[in-house]
M48 family peptidase (Oricola cellulosilytica), 445 residues
Amino acid sequence: MTMIALSISAATTARAQASLPIVRDAEIERLLSDYATPLLRAAGVKRDRIDIVLVNSPAFNAFVSGRKIFVNTGTIVTAETPNEVIGVLAHEIAHLAGGHQDRLRQQIDRAQTIAAVTAVLGASAAVAAGMSGKGSVAGAGSGLALGGAEAARRGLLTYQRSEELAADRAAVDYLDKTGQSPKGMLVTFERFQRDLALISDRINPYRISHPLPRERISALETLARKSPNFSKSDPAGLQQRHDMARAKIIAYTSGPAAAEGFAQKTASSRAALYGRAIAKFLYGSPQQALPMIDKLIAGDPSNPYLHEIKGEIQLKARNAAAAADAFTQAARLDKGDSGLIQSALGHALVLQGDRQSLQRAVGELEVSLSLDPVNPVAYRNLAMAYGRLGDTGSAELATAEENFHSGRYKDAKVFAARAKRKFEPNSPRWLRADDIQRFKTPDKR
């Protein structure tokens, strides 16, 4: 499968995100990277320090945590143009460049301090009232505690809303610097406003962390329309890549009926065929999907992701040798050096099963993990390759890595202990197994 559902390892991400349904896909990751790279450069943020992570959710949303930008698949599907997604990324990059996360943590600490102090003052007033026998003063004490907490919370939310507006303004600046239109941001806010139209009168503006869409439109419209790039459209090639990504996500996540619905309404005939081909191989016949993907390859033979999908189709058709050929072509054409494509190639070679293929699989999977060292699926295939070659220690170490990067630390330690017994003490593999065995499991509280 090209799109791999995973959970974020708690070793690298906050516990609150550990259960997010993460999706890995070389084509879509490359598309988002191409969207974000000019913006990161404009913001003065180094690209190699930022990860863009896909979340398998139909909601239109994106957020920043640490040095990661999380983007829901629903954001790509909902956005009709690349510019809409680019606007979202510009906003999130503004949070990174502005250090908003660090300042937000400071504000949270401050709010908690205020709430704690007022709670203590309220308790002290209640105790004093109890000793004096004046019940009304005791009531005032509890009111002081509750009022202080509410004031702290409102102050924090006010701060968050101001940071959101600041990020919007910075995003327009980044878009101008990269010669792109801010129109997509307005389109997004107008969509949010339509969605909130029926309930906006029941929303307390002081109890939300983001400004209401109408406020953001009001704050941005004049600034955006002054941009010399406001009426600029996305390049046709980029629009086609965007539509093909939408078709892929819909086929994988919503099934053949949704893929057909998108195919009938999209203006891109190639995206329509792409979605239909993926849906056909996932839910129908790989033999019927092959000529469809071959037709797309004939029109764009240098597109690595079409060859990648062909490899996936051949795997489902149980033709491991043909799958390996397709993945080899995809890896050769891939300018982004995706570890995911190398991992798929390694998987196909493992399925071929002969010793020469298994030895090649080890090499391809080691290359994959040098490019993408936290991919548990690649470690699983590497363990299979080593196991079939009779290298038990390396297979157990790869299994330990798979469990470690999947967040199964107890199992990882068990396999690491087994692997250590098969390696020379203080050798590189022994040391890696020792690192896993000694790893301090994150607190689950």
